[in-house]
Write a structure and sequence with these properties.
This protein is mainly beta. The chain folds into four domains: 116 residues, Carboxypeptidase-like, regulatory domain (Immunoglobulin-like), CATH 2.60.40; 96 residues, Carboxypeptidase-like, regulatory domain (Immunoglobulin-like, Sandwich); 91 residues, Carboxypeptidase-like, regulatory domain (Immunoglobulin-like); 111 residues, Immunoglobulin-like (Sandwich), CATH 2.60.40. The protein has three helices and 32 strands. Strands 9, 10, 11, 13 and 14 form a five-stranded antiparallel β-sheet that branches. Strands 26-25-28-31-30 form a five-stranded antiparallel β-sheet, with no helix packed on it. The longest helix has 11 residues. The radius of gyration is 23 Å and the shape is globular. It starts with a helix and ends in a 29-residue tail after the last strand. The N terminus is likely disordered.
Length: 441
């Protein structure tokens, strides 16, 4: 894997999270979307775009909180509800409606009183602009896919292609209307090409290449159905979260699929998986609650419409990693500091708050390579950590059993991806296949 793809792979792995919210007293977000003159807008799509803690720090990217997977559609009166949100977070909403300019709303607190969100109608000049991209999303049978989402992920401008962080040059999302038609607007004359994912209900996600001023017919396949049964000691296990992600992590090719839960007989069904691709099928650590782990299942999907059975999958022993984060200058770890553990191949993670003395514990960790990361303002990981991922500023290595008294040392300085000072080079800068090793103080 070359350096660029290493960075992309490690960064994409960090874009998965388990929200650390309190289990009780999770408020609903209820608001109204209107147009000019307070006219209610029906069928507007409302997405939780990003989030951030009201207090403390987190290693998670703003779009990686579990609540950022949630969305809603307004009713005939323009009202919507997004249920059970983390009360410790503030949210940034994205509202998209046919015939209206999309809009962000920042600093939304679900514990506050409901508000009105006003959208501006699209003008005739905007619809005729050379910066607009129009299209129609259909399924394999040629029927429109209402509500299909076109999500820009990369933008080419001249000789440069930038993945992520393109909200300033292209709208972050377009949603198809009841006839499957969508309009996406670029915000800069410098945009040559937009690389986006297209997805909808009952069809498989697909990458599309779009150019400003173009008109497109986007045809999405049915995809493949993956089935299987999760067992523990030969007995079926219910309510285990199962998902799939491509082994290919290169931008413009990577897919991550929605998770499903096993039924009372331990069976799961993953539908509309992109065809003819290699996937990792995995169970989440959180859903297994520390009681074992399922080894990653590598599956190559067949043609669209096929059904593939993975058979009986037995849960194996899992392990515990516990230890302490230590600051080299003797200062205490700030309150509400969060620590993050992610699996190398599966898009799965755990998050925990450090205790006052910097102590942490992760239970139910599979026997595979994992990343551990923690962010503290004005500190960075010390190069004395033997499992330092110099390329991405994390702790990286393979788990083969329980690990106790694992110490992570941080020193004053600015956090950074690539720690260039005294760089070891070779495999030592990316110790993905080496056992996790604690620093010795």
């Amino acid at each position: 894997m070359n350096t660029v793809f290493k960075i992309l792979a490690r960064f994409s792995l960090m874009l998965v999270c388990v929200c650390a919210a309190a289990a009780d007293e999770r408020p609903d977000l209820t608001e109204q979307v209107v147009g000019t003159g307070d006219t209610p807008i029906a069928k507007a799509s409302v997405f939780i775009y990003t989030a951030g803690p009201k207090q403390g720090t987190s290693v998670l990217c703003p779009s990686c909180y579990a609540d950022c997977q949630k969305n809603a559609q307004t009713d005939a009166d323009g009202h919507f509800k997004i249920a059970s949100l983390d009360p410790t977070l503030r949210f940034r909403l994205l509202i998209v409606a046919a015939g209206y300019e999309s809009q962000f709303v920042s600093g939304v607190d679900p514990t506050n009183a409901p508000q009105k969100i006003t959208l501006s109608p699209l003008t005739e000049a905007a619809l005729k602009s050379p910066l607009r991209i129009k299209g129609m999303v259909i399924d394999e049978n040629g029927k429109p896919v209402p509500g299909a989402a076109i999500s820009p992920e990369g933008v080419a401008m001249g000789q440069m292609t930038r993945w992520g962080g393109n909200d300033a040059v292209v709208e972050p999302l377009a949603v198809a209307d009841d006839n499957g038609r969508f309009v996406l607007f670029c915000k800069s004359n410098n945009v040559d090409t937009v690389y986006a994912t297209a997805e909808g209900r009952g069809v498989a996600k697909q990458w599309v290449t779009l150019k400003p001023g173009g008109d497109y017919l986007v045809k999405l396949p049915e995809g493949v159905t993956l089935t299987g049964q999760i067992l523990r000691h030969g007995q079926p296990v219910k309510d285990i979260s199962v998902s799939a992600t491509t082994t290919e992590r290169q931008c413009g090719k990577y897919f991550n699929c929605d998770s499903v839960a096993t039924d009372t007989n331990g069976h799961f069904t993953l539908m509309n998986i992109p065809p003819n691709r290699e996937f990792v099928v995995f169970t989440s650590m959180k859903s297994l609650q520390g009681e074992g782990a399922l080894p990653n299942q590598i599956v190559t999907t067949g043609d669209s419409g096929q059904r593939q059975d993975l058979g009986r999958l037995e849960i194996q022993p899992a392990f515990t990693i516990s230890g302490r984060v230590v600051l080299s200058d003797g200062q205490p770890v700030p309150a509400d500091t969060r620590m993050f553990l992610a699996r190398e191949k599966a898009m799965d993670s755990l998050e925990t708050k450090l205790n006052a003395d910097g102590a942490f514990e992760f239970r139910g960790v599979p026997a595979e390579s994992v990343t551990m990361n923690v962010r503290i303002k004005d500190y960075r990981l010390s190069k004395r950590n033997p499992s330092l991922d110099w390329l991405n500023g994390a702790i990286l290595g393979r788990v083969t059993g329980d690990i106790h008294d694992f110490t992570i040392l941080m020193k004053p300085g600015d956090w950074q991806y690539n720690q260039t000072d005294d760089h070891p080079g070779g495999d030592d800068d990316y110790p993905v296949n080496k056992p996790l090793r604690s620093v010795k103080l």
